[in-house]
């Protein structure tokens, strides 16, 4: 049992690689390092530095593999509006190449990294897998198209698949791996506090208990374990749903994140307050009940534990 992890040198991918190895599953990584880091790939893991657009490289990476976790892609939703063709090429064209090569080598198992972006701004107190999709960016659209590709390919060839829809992935399960995204809340806060600067809250007039937006934050270690569970289920022949939300069911506000940062770091700061950004939803929280039922999914970290793990892994100059 050997699985290919596309994007395995990225923040999430590197955690998935570690989770597979911890569960005795051999792993191969392919990553073009456009946003990943070669040093995130553990020693001894076969690593091919290449784009999924390179069919020959994908063919080599798939040799001897029994399944694929597909995480590689362009993941910046806001920037995707400015670079739609790039986003579609990296997320759709590349996935077509991957599925073509999988079919050619009779590889029938795939776990796809989808996104909460497929829902857009849902009009639901609690998002479930039955909540209507309505992506509002090229990024979200490409993730939904990726799910369609899997369903259509499964009608044409033997293919067992499931898609995991992530919300806000945070923290670290290994001090050598950290989230370097310039757009995510936790790394923004860690970066500013480590430099002696003060982070800000965008919007304090939301219709929420403390006036700041409430979102679902999921620890990357729990997320990685969900990939292992999904891979094992597919390998065993267990029928899985087409998609699963990995959500807490409750959510955490931005102010609660700031309070956790103060407690964890010991830095006494008062966050700045600025007007909310256009399009920022007040609340996006998902139910993880289906994933709990089928994958044993659980969100096992408190907000303080999530932030502490991110802070301890954050690189200091």
Automatic annotation (TrEMBL):
NAD-dependent epimerase/dehydratase domain ranges (all copies): 3-247
MF GO annotations: UDP-glucose 4-epimerase activity
Cofactor requirement: NAD(+)
SUPFAM superfamilies: NAD(P)-binding Rossmann-fold domains
Enzyme Commission number: 5.1.3.2
Pathway(s) of this molecule: Carbohydrate metabolism; galactose metabolism
Reaction equation(s) it catalyzes: UDP-alpha-D-glucose = UDP-alpha-D-galactose
Entry keywords, A to Z: Carbohydrate metabolism, Isomerase, NAD
Family membership: Belongs to the NAD(P)-dependent epimerase/dehydratase family.
Stated name of the protein: UDP-glucose 4-epimerase
Source organism: Kribbella deserti
């Amino acid at each position: 049992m050997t699985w290919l992890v596309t994007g395995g040198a990225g923040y999430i991918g590197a955690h998935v690689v570690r989770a597979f190895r911890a569960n005795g599953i051999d792993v191969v990584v392919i990553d073009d390092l456009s946003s990943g880091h070669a040093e995130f790939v553990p020693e001894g893991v076969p690593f091919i530095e290449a784009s999924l657009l390179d069919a020959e490289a994908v063919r080599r990476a798939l040799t001897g593999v029994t399944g694929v976790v597909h995480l590689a892609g362009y993941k910046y939703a806001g920037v995707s509006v400015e670079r739609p063709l790039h986003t579609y090429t990296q997320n759709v064209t590349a996935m077509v190449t991957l599925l073509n090569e999988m079919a050619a080598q009779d590889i029938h198992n795939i776990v796809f990294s989808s996104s909460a972006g497929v829902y857009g701004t849902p009009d639901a107190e609690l998002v479930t897998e039955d909540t209507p999709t309505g992506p509002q960016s090229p990024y979200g659209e490409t993730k939904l198209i990726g799910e369609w590709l899997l369903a259509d390919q499964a009608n044409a060839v033997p293919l067992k698949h499931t898609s995991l829809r992530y919300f806000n992935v945070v923290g670290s399960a290994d001090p050598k791996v950290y989230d370097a995204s310039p757009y995510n809340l936790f790394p923004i806060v860690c970066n500013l506090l480590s430099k002696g600067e003060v982070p800000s809250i965008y919007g304090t007039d939301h219709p929420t208990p403390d006036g700041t937006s409430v979102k679902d934050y999921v620890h990357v270690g729990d997320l990685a374990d969900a990939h292992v569970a999904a891979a094992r289920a597919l390998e065993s022949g267990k029928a899985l749903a087409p998609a699963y939300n990995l959500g807490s069911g409750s959510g955490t506000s931005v102010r609660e994140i700031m309070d956790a940062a103060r407690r964890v770091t010991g830095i006494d700061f008062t966050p700045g307050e600025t007007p909310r950004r256009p399009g920022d939803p007040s609340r996006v929280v998902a139910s993880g009940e289906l994933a709990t039922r089928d994958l044993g999914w659980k969100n096992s970290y408190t907000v303080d534990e999530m932030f502490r793990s991110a802070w301890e892994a954050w690189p200091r100059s």
